[in-house]
Model the fold of this input.
Amino acid sequence: MPSTFGTALRVQIFGQSHSPAIGCVMEGLPSGFHVDLQELQRFMDRRAPGHNAWSTPRKEADAPNIVGGLNERGETCGTPLAALIRNANVRSGDYDEIRRVPRPGHADYAAWEKWGNSHDIRGGGHFSARLTAPLCVAGGIALQVLKERGVRIAAHVSQVGQAVDEPFCALDNTPSSLQKLRRQMDTLRSGQDRGEFPTIDPNAGEEMRQVIDLARQDQDSVGGAIECVATGLPAGVGGPRYDGIQGSVARIVFGIPAVKGLEFGAGFAVAGMRGSQNNDSFELRDGKPCPRTNNAGGSLGGISSGAPILFRMAVKPTPSIGLAQDSVDLVSSEPATLHVRGRHDPCVAARAVPIAEAALALALLDSWLAYPPAKA
Amino acid sequence: MPSTFGTALRVQIFGQSHSPAIGCVMEGLPSGFHVDLQELQRFMDRRAPGHNAWSTPRKEADAPNIVGGLNERGETCGTPLAALIRNANVRSGDYDEIRRVPRPGHADYAAWEKWGNSHDIRGGGHFSARLTAPLCVAGGIALQVLKERGVRIAAHVSQVGQAVDEPFCALDNTPSSLQKLRRQMDTLRSGQDRGEFPTIDPNAGEEMRQVIDLARQDQDSVGGAIECVATGLPAGVGGPRYDGIQGSVARIVFGIPAVKGLEFGAGFAVAGMRGSQNNDSFELRDGKPCPRTNNAGGSLGGISSGAPILFRMAVKPTPSIGLAQDSVDLVSSEPATLHVRGRHDPCVAARAVPIAEAALALALLDSWLAYPPAKA
Amino acid sequence: MPSTFGTALRVQIFGQSHSPAIGCVMEGLPSGFHVDLQELQRFMDRRAPGHNAWSTPRKEADAPNIVGGLNERGETCGTPLAALIRNANVRSGDYDEIRRVPRPGHADYAAWEKWGNSHDIRGGGHFSARLTAPLCVAGGIALQVLKERGVRIAAHVSQVGQAVDEPFCALDNTPSSLQKLRRQMDTLRSGQDRGEFPTIDPNAGEEMRQVIDLARQDQDSVGGAIECVATGLPAGVGGPRYDGIQGSVARIVFGIPAVKGLEFGAGFAVAGMRGSQNNDSFELRDGKPCPRTNNAGGSLGGISSGAPILFRMAVKPTPSIGLAQDSVDLVSSEPATLHVRGRHDPCVAARAVPIAEAALALALLDSWLAYPPAKA
Amino acid sequence: MPSTFGTALRVQIFGQSHSPAIGCVMEGLPSGFHVDLQELQRFMDRRAPGHNAWSTPRKEADAPNIVGGLNERGETCGTPLAALIRNANVRSGDYDEIRRVPRPGHADYAAWEKWGNSHDIRGGGHFSARLTAPLCVAGGIALQVLKERGVRIAAHVSQVGQAVDEPFCALDNTPSSLQKLRRQMDTLRSGQDRGEFPTIDPNAGEEMRQVIDLARQDQDSVGGAIECVATGLPAGVGGPRYDGIQGSVARIVFGIPAVKGLEFGAGFAVAGMRGSQNNDSFELRDGKPCPRTNNAGGSLGGISSGAPILFRMAVKPTPSIGLAQDSVDLVSSEPATLHVRGRHDPCVAARAVPIAEAALALALLDSWLAYPPAKA
Done:
């Protein structure tokens, strides 16, 4: 089912940009877990636009309302957790033009071929980035469950246009590099608590904001990349082949609008490497086998190796741009020129940071519940 | 389930490297389709080692035996299609050392954490690249069904070490570039029929063979990348979000051993692009809307756009290398040095070409059966 | 997943008796279907208590609020349809006793073994019959889609205690018996529109009401049975074996609280029959093969035969009774005597009639969408 | 998928009556379990025809060949277990007549509407009772895993025509009735080891054999019923609603050819009972809550209560009878008279006994793995 993912932890996303509400249902959460609603709201705020200087000023009140799945003490009770976010502040004005003239880079035309006129085109319908809000509700809860189990997740904008951030220190797996990684994660967390642009290096963040501002001034947009890491996942989580850790992450990540690429560990660089460089040799640490490097990105044969899970994803430039674009009038079958109106976020990378964290949290918690280490 | 994928076309892979057999079950194939067993065998031969000069000389008789799902005339009869490949020629000699000392880059250690001593370590068990043979059986049948529906799929080795092939002419979507793409696909097909290295440019293929030979001489291995394309898929196939075309491809591709990265269309390059560059504007062609460029790789919001589906995947260097590697003895908990014996393929990229085609064929046929265009 | 069912039409039920809301998400509905909200409300009213003389006077406002899945014209738009019913009028008073002393015939004890104290015991939690309201929302929409395709569904209370109703004329499949069946279905529909007890024979309904009244006076309850039929389903719908029509109905029916038995067509009577009696021979009708009798209940090998789909299900007496019952104090581990307080429906059979119709509608629509006749 | 069932333990059945082989794939078995192949064969022999006096003399060598999923010591290794049974001894003679003239009571006509001429009609194809052999392979392995966990399963023929066997002493749950139940199960086991008809009371078995013989002499067949019980399942296994114990059993049971009814515990009798009779009150036994009676058949709200799981299923008379039957020629669209040739089992009840046990074992093991008690 297109709007559902997960094996033991099954998440269903519903709603459209302008329907009365959007939301999610999570089935398979461990019972007896107390959901911290304030922490969840703080996590949601990181995704919401209008909370910071570099994104669209439209304010969405992304306040999730949990309507099922908790007992009277606010603990998960073993049944599906359902959460709703009202769609207030929608201006479903005139979508007739968009219905006629598909926007380049958007799913309008593909959806028209799929559903014809019954597609809910208002605000992008089910394809809207707004649908990442319920993903973050589910992911925010998964993050809390994982935190209790010792797993910590962080992400940053690693690239916007030609501007790049310092990478996570996670391709190495020595004790000192793990320590540096933890510091990077702390830096990111405290920066985001202060509402800063989510980079490890503040200078890179400043540079990225300038790249975005330039694109905005040109009525254009710009793409970016996100790097995401999880520490503390024990070895032996996940399954071989098609429901392994890489595949589980991929299934969710490629369901995030605008994502066009995904790589784990050394990623595409492996194509240019030799085995003797790429293989992560093992050493003993506290009597336990431990990979010394982490080119594998923490996953061997779909199963966690004990090293950090590390991935990078590329997000394309926001397709809604003010510049004139060529398109086609679906009704008259004539060429048309499109001017996308309204104020759009010229770069979604910063907002994609908590979304990437949510995706990784959901994939890892699901893998852990469905395919735990035998020794656990 | 780790060894299963698909929505309307469900594929289950079973067996281990040294179990009596490996195989697959496909449920959901259209009924009444005549499977061409000779064409299937020719497709299987492209994956098998020992059929060409650049891979390991061990000969596997990858002759699939279809034991269920066909009627007396060799047509699919509406019930699951089951195929078996015998594991002959296995030398399950002494696996005690491998059981004790996990090979870097392999899933040995992760599997030990997952299953302890019950893991079938012989020949890599369920993680073996041998398990891509039943994937190719399923994919080879999907390719035949798609061919009848006008879809054509091809792949080539786009990179080995620093050597690169000419790319598919598929980021552009003009009539002339589509024509060039078809010529590239024809070139690849005829070259492979002659047993050549699967590149578009023969010089690139020659260069790659040299890179591989050098790695072999050094008792080392080398990584690579595969580019894969499908033409002829109508617009409107696939579903939004988590079961869209990108996600369906990703689920299968990340289940192929050694894959560490996947990108569609412009892929990771989108991070450096502007919206005005990346958006694929529409024009009319034969009265139908058609994207002029194909940075989207044929998928918008998980749904096909009518342009070629295009992806690239990175495969890591073969982890089995002759050079000494550091590891750990799981029984004695002491450091150990490992020498992987036996003759291994120093680069799996060439053999991964039909595997990538199989993966794309299965993802596209499944998407088409599960989520067809409404107008069809 | 326990709260989910269906293959191509996937339904997820969420919420507990006293959570803020209950609801359902349906994924896989055909797009472009206009949902008639008034007709849906009329269907919901047939399930709700307090709308008639013979059930509990507690009034529930079962007004479904569709928050996602419809476009601006109220048509299904291809994305998940999500509906909510608020849980107003809940008195979550003192559930401490029920938490300590499980009620016989309820799931209290089983849920305690499963989830311990995290189970939401208020009002029966996820096990409450209230959760059949979202099932009826989903089923009511499925009924509308099926109606447009020519399928009609009806059910009646066939037994309460020793009182029995006239059965559906559906074990025979002659033109005249089909005509009589249609008259029975008309009678039921108009009777229910007038708020009558759902029997074909009004005298049987009167007798059943007396049996229920007697049980109520005795602070006891009484069981019943429902018979349900669908006409107009073409031959060839459904799949063989485990996802066939019988299995799909069974999966939903055994998820309805209180159901302890299910039979199709001649049902348990087949145990005493000979093949020559039970086989439904074929004859030509309008040039088409047609079974003359319908002992198969419309399903052969999991696939529809063209004859009416016919099933019967048994519902146990309401476990909540005023009479003293023996139980156990889970905290003190001592015997305890339980008096279930509050006003409970002494027989759920009448309310189960629309639930049975909803279950059949969902199973048939799902089967049709997932496994249509090849010739269609 | 029609040929697949299960949640955490997923079973796929493949093959047709006359395809080269039939088989099953089981994914999700606990790893490290040693499969006893001899015990499995003994279990298979109980289903096979030709092993006893009362069934068809055709001998099938139902020797399962496990081709994947075991390690070198014969233990499950965490990957899918795949088993094959060759279809030797098939006489795919002339099926042209059957293809033209569907047999009453068989799926021939329904399959023709579904798949037209591509259906594999030879020997009944995928609908053949032969496909219960791989179900028994999977179930026989599940029985071994359950046995190790303290669960024991038995079934008997409870009815053939008007002849009835003594029922299991399982509606009561006192220590003495549980003891009597165990004796009944011992009796059944030893009787079946001696090749006797599977009844608790040998006189009932003798009577049933006469009923069957009479039907055979008349070239007719006769129906029957099976009662099946499991002891030793802890309380708290299973999930609420649609994936509960009743639903999981139902999904498999209604996939067994010829089954037309299923009831748990008091079953259809609940329709005539009062709550005070039907509710199973609790008492303390060894400090643990225990239902005193077992009208619930061991399942409350889909979750096990600790009492025996008890169900009954009705199997229709074998549709293949020698008597002349009316049918229709699908090619000429004219009435036709059918004489089913060949020797067929006039009653499948005895062979359905191990099939019922297999179905229950698979449903319970799956429920246990997917939804274990929280306290375990």
Observations:
- Chain B touches chain C through seven residues (CB under 8 Å).
- The first strand of chain B starts at residue 4 and ends at 5.
- The domain at 4-370 of chain B is CATH 3.60.150.10 (Chorismate synthase, AroC fold).
